[in-house]
Amino acid sequence: MPERLVVIGGDAAGMSAASQARRRRKPADLEIVAFERGHFTSYSACGIPYWIGGLVADRDALIARSPETFRAEHDIDVRLRHEVIGIDLDRREVLVRNVDTGTESREWFDQLMYAAGATPRKPPWARVDARGIFGVQTLDDGTALRAWLDADPGPRHAVVVGGGYIGVEMAEAMIQRDLTVTLVEQGDQPMSTVDPDMGVLVRDSMCQLGIDIRTGCTVTGLTVRDGRLSAVETTDGTLPADLVVVSTGVRPNSRLAADAGLPIGVTGGIRVDLQMRVLGADRVWAAGDCVETVHRLTGQPVHVPLGTHANKQGRVAGLNIGGGYATFPGVIGTAVTRVCDLEVARTGLLEREAEDAGYQYVSTRIESTNRAGYFPGAKSMTVKLIAERRSGQLLGAQIVGRSEAAKRIDALAVALWNYMTVDEMAGLDLGYAPPYAPVWDPVLIAARKAVDAIHAG
Amino acid sequence: MPERLVVIGGDAAGMSAASQARRRRKPADLEIVAFERGHFTSYSACGIPYWIGGLVADRDALIARSPETFRAEHDIDVRLRHEVIGIDLDRREVLVRNVDTGTESREWFDQLMYAAGATPRKPPWARVDARGIFGVQTLDDGTALRAWLDADPGPRHAVVVGGGYIGVEMAEAMIQRDLTVTLVEQGDQPMSTVDPDMGVLVRDSMCQLGIDIRTGCTVTGLTVRDGRLSAVETTDGTLPADLVVVSTGVRPNSRLAADAGLPIGVTGGIRVDLQMRVLGADRVWAAGDCVETVHRLTGQPVHVPLGTHANKQGRVAGLNIGGGYATFPGVIGTAVTRVCDLEVARTGLLEREAEDAGYQYVSTRIESTNRAGYFPGAKSMTVKLIAERRSGQLLGAQIVGRSEAAKRIDALAVALWNYMTVDEMAGLDLGYAPPYAPVWDPVLIAARKAVDAIHAG
């Protein structure tokens, strides 16, 4: 009889794990059953704002692989609308509820892959039963929001609460749908995922697009009329609204794991070893937005819910379940996004994060261009570096630019990953040709400026 | 009395050195005189093809700083049309000829900066005195070519000899000027700066543009009528032509240095230490296309004439002349270019270079896209990796793509610089968002494929 792998969660981490395990172990050796409470598998959650905004025309384009594909091509039994509601590690069973019928059943496993993702941090005011209130965590969320937008008459006034990546991307999507948009952010700056001096560039660009930005502003409640949202109450006054997007962050969806006695870390994520095996558990694995990982610079546990990590971690877990050997080396906080006509990127630590980690640092900022200044299409870009005060080790980098800017973060990310100093970086052999860079690439100019600051300090 | 720095050559390396030295030492402490035999200083030689082709409208846009700027803002005495024709290290004098008047004079120095650049490898058949024969090494060359193109009636049939970066860029420029273009290349493939399996992609793209490519073809002579070029004779027959571009490579312009007894390496370039000091010489420095440097992977001396190295080396020399401390760490062979609608990039070693260096390797190739597949503007890209057979250390990478492809080489270059293995690279935390990458960046997919090949081998 084959071993049986049960996968909890049919998105990036879970299905990557399932696919990798299947590549190495045939159905006669390993049966794979995946339970997903939603309607979809393996979709690009990061793509939802672009579908909402209309840039991506077809929802199905966001779905990498359907349950049918998994079943037919990989012999993976994916059961949609099935939610795992309990784990019994001693009996090696999960309790599963059919979301549509309410029927519950027990399913046995030898190996368990926990990939339940993240749960929106829903503020108390958002726990209201009314139409017009949306999250954007899942493709089901996105589908509901899109239906609301496409209704006739559709909504006209949107309020987006929370100015992180998703909030900013959703604000832009709403503008593209011709709604008036107000972005409500508790902090001093939207795009708090970069330092304030870089965030202000993003803010300017959002304002130019017509987004009304309210910073230092908190939502206090919602006004509902006839079961529909009619306004958002804030510390900055009443904002009429027939649509609110709640993008106030997520937390690891680790409750079931905790209830089963699996170890939960300080971030709320499940604790795993390098192979993505749950610490101290027998043949139980976890990956994706529900786990915590380690930041390679600070050595601290962090929770970084990003599709790219979920895919990598899922692959690692699946390789190991399949009898191979792979490890996940941790993260350094790289992220990129597009806001209006701006490209925004970061890697490593922000200033406050560097401080919290105990680093003393210098930070420098330069202006340059994506191409040779004389080349058609040359656009400006700002590069900020944060380097350890004494050694000059790169601790963080941020880029805001208009074109061909964001992915320059990768060279900086690899430098940071390898603990390079800004001195060493100034000598790097990067690609140069007029269509792609000034003769000194912005990355090199930034490194030179940082070198000067280190030696002056 | 101030010390006196004499600079031989007023382009990237020489003027970077002069500027850096000036930043640290005021005129009362250091007098700086630079001799340049041409009409221009500090221009982008790499930009010449784009000006010839019409993409860059204004020649002066290629000039970063004019002699007037150097004089007025930096107190650097730049003397154009002055060629240094001899160096006397014992008397610490150079012999200088005014190119226009023929007058010769002696100029003393304390410190000497040798930055005479490179000289075209002119084949015997090109040493003919006729109109219609052009190099593209200097802005003076470019100016002459442009005048020939702009004449009325202008030329109609161009032959470009040599299929390296410059040859390929010039072929494209000639097409943009509505000439018929034949590219003659001795080897099997134009763009021999990448492996043949990648070069074939470039060849296809050039053919589609209408460039007639003759590989395995050698020029045997030129036909001149009334002092004008009328045809190029090749092993492949007679090619009617009223314009020939000779882009058959360059060699270090180190003759004067050799005559003065300075050490010349196996590549023909001047030998320097880490600070760009000429080996064994007293207060004599060299930088740019006239020196040889070290390849960080093979440990072998190499001659890599590229503006980006010239700028870096010149800066290092200037900092040291100025009393600071900087070193040039060597190169790893990174280069990017645009050919028609293709972006072409490389870093590290090609297959034959890896073999010559004594490595055993595996090479792998993957296809991916620059953006999420569903995102508007997603275009294909091919990434090839070469990794050491046993350790998996990255030895080389090549990319050919249609958009947002070439500069991905930088992440690979930094990985290679840091001696990463493809195993380590598969875990890198690179930027992901749908407008910029699939959830697995092509760089990561390439690393995964290489990992599989290493472990299979």
TrEMBL record, chains A, B:
<dbReference type="InterPro" id="IPR050260">
    <property type="entry name" value="FAD-bd_OxRdtase"/>
</dbReference>
<keyword id="KW-0274">FAD</keyword>
<dbReference type="Pfam" id="PF07992">
    <property type="entry name" value="Pyr_redox_2"/>
</dbReference>
<keyword id="KW-0676">Redox-active center</keyword>
<keyword id="KW-0560">Oxidoreductase</keyword>
<keyword id="KW-0285">Flavoprotein</keyword>
<protein>
    <submittedName>
        <fullName>FAD-dependent oxidoreductase</fullName>
    </submittedName>
</protein>
<comment type="similarity">
    <text>Belongs to the class-III pyridine nucleotide-disulfide oxidoreductase family.</text>
</comment>
<dbReference type="InterPro" id="IPR004099">
    <property type="entry name" value="Pyr_nucl-diS_OxRdtase_dimer"/>
</dbReference>
<feature type="domain" description="FAD/NAD(P)-binding">
    <location>
        <begin position="4"/>
        <end position="298"/>
    </location>
</feature>
<dbReference type="InterPro" id="IPR023753">
    <property type="entry name" value="FAD/NAD-binding_dom"/>
</dbReference>
<dbReference type="InterPro" id="IPR036188">
    <property type="entry name" value="FAD/NAD-bd_sf"/>
</dbReference>
<dbReference type="InterPro" id="IPR016156">
    <property type="entry name" value="FAD/NAD-linked_Rdtase_dimer_sf"/>
</dbReference>
<dbReference type="Pfam" id="PF02852">
    <property type="entry name" value="Pyr_redox_dim"/>
</dbReference>
<feature type="domain" description="Pyridine nucleotide-disulphide oxidoreductase dimerisation">
    <location>
        <begin position="337"/>
        <end position="438"/>
    </location>
</feature>
